[in-house]
Amino acid sequence: MSGTKRGTRVVYNPNMKRIRNINWLAIIVATLVTGAAVVSWAYLSSRTHQAKLERSLQTKQVELQKQIKALDLQKIQTKQIDDQKEALKVQTQELQKQLEAKRSTQKVLAAAKPTPTKPIQAPRAVYGGDCATWIRDAGITDVASAMELIRKESNCNPNAVNRSSGACGIGQSLPCSKMGAVNANGTSAVSPVNQLIWMDKYVVARYGSFAGALAFHLRNNWY
């Protein structure tokens, strides 16, 4: 077959058909490769997005578990506080009952307790004479020093009693019983002259004389 046409000569080339076939095949392969690449990219993108979603979900689940634990702990603490409040309430009620019972007992005891009676005190003794006479009758020679010391201590009152210490008499004997008998009211039952005799012995034994005792008293306000 010559492949010629009237007025025109056509040259037949068998390689042209092969070239056309190869070009179509290349296009098909390229299309398939491109499609596969697109599918692979889409698949990888989908997997990456899914992995991100899974990680985000896991993070939220962990946070949610923490919040649930915190709420559970808060409930436990609230329950403990409520229990403590209830226990304190019970203790307060019990103490209130004990206090009321104690008050009732005290009222009963107060009603049954007899009213104390004041002791009958012996009347204060009344002695004749004056302080200077008593001093001389006691045998004290330094009347002036004795008078001044006695004035500071008791003002020469045989019935004088120091309420804070219990010292009594003209010379403020401590305790009062040193001079002898004592009345129920704490005063000395000894006469003024006998009180001064005791005082003279005490002063001489401790200070040597009434002048020495007076000097000590002036420095210390006691003897």
Description:
By secondary structure, the protein is mostly helical. The chain has a domain at about 130-220. Helices cover about 65% and strands about 0% of the residues. It has five helices and two strands; from the N terminus they run ββααααα. It has helices spanning about 15-110, 130-135, 145-155, 190-205, 210-220, and strands at about 5, 10. The protein has a two-stranded antiparallel sheet with strand order 1-2. A hairpin with a 2-residue loop joins β1 and β2 (about 10). α3 (about 145-155) packs parallel to α5 and α4 (about 190-205) crosses α5. It is rod-shaped, with a radius of gyration of 64 Å. Mean pLDDT is about 80; it is low at about 1-5 and about 115-125.
Number of helices: 5
**What ranges have pLDDT less than 50 throughout 5 or more consecutive residues?**
1-5, 116-123
Strand order of the largest sheet: 1-2
N- and C-termini, Cα separation? 173 Å
In short:
It is built from 5 helices and 2 strands.
Summary tags:
223 residues, mainly alpha, two-stranded antiparallel sheet, 2% strand, disordered N terminus
Strand and helix map with partners:
Elements: E1 4-5, E2 8-9, H1 15-112, H2 131-137, H3 143-153, H4 192-207, H5 210-220
Helix pairs in contact: 3-5, 4-5
